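Morning!

This is the sequence you dropped in the shared folder:
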Amino acid sequence: MKRFSMKTITWYGIIALLVAVALLPILKALRPQYFPSMNYAGFRDLDCQGVTCPEGKFCAENKTCVNIATRYPDNVPEGDV
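The structure's back. Tokens below.
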């Protein structure tokens, strides 16, 4: 007698998948450090948190806005250039 046919294995697989998907929110609530949220800010400097620099500048380590290095050696062009 065949114990595990392809149909039985498929149903067990589907049930295991549903149980795993149902357990994910519970695991995230219990151990949130293993499931980080997706609100990453790329290249974010934590020293400059709360500082908003104008266009063409970025926040440096001491919370001052510095010109972005471009092909113009001295400054960032102003306006629609």
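Headline: The first strand starts at residue 57 and ends at 59.

More detail when I'm at my desk.
O.
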